[in-house]
Recover the amino acids of this structure.
């Protein structure tokens, strides 16, 4: 689904910036500041307080699984995709939005950083709940359209990006470490 933003839209490296616009979607999954508990190696961790040894987390169907490597994260996501029923698939993207902590998708010359993958669609998700607020330096969209916003709940300046897009430098740096909320649709 393609959306046209405010008439003042500006394209920045695949991002479409809408100054002063607001996209209306369902409310966020949790209130801002609510702890986000994830499963990691048989234990639970509160991502809003730190990731510990986890390097990749999947937010999928209301469940948050974290892993030491991106490869483990990908394997778990592939396993879950095979079991998705049509009713579960609604409100769900078959491939994720991936947020990377460092530029160039966490690859050289940048250090390996964290990866946060989102599959659930239809509402704003605040990145502070995952300890990722203002820490996105590159991204890859999956099968769904994505909106980025500089404030929680989709407020503030927004950028919309179509499926199968990527940007290793967040709009040539103009959006680096500024994203506070995302929505997939």
């Amino acid at each position: 689904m393609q959306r046209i933003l405010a008439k003042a839209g500006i394209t920045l490296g695949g991002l479409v910036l809408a100054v002063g616009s607001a996209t209306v979607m369902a409310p966020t999954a949790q209130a801002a500041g609510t702890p986000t508990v994830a499963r990691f190696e048989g234990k639970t961790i509160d991502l809003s307080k730190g990731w510990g040894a986890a390097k990749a987390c999947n937010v999928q169907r209301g469940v948050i699984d974290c892993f030491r490597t991106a490869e483990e994260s990908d394997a778990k996501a592939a396993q879950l995709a095979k079991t998705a029923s049509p009713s579960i698939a609604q409100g769900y993207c078959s491939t994720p939005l991936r947020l990377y902590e460092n530029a160039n998708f966490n690859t050289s010359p940048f250090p390996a950083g964290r990866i946060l993958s989102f599959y659930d669609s239809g509402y704003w998700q605040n990145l502070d709940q995952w300890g990722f607020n203002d820490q996105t330096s590159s991204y890859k969209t999956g099968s769904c359209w994505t909106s980025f916003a500089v404030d929680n709940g989709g407020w503030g300046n927004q950028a919309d990006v179509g499926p199968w897009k990527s940007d290793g430098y967040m709009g040539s740096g103009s959006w680096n470490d500024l994203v506070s909320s995302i929505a997939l649709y």
Notes: The chain has two helices and 14 strands. The helical segments are 70-82, 86-89. The longest strand covers residues 92-100.
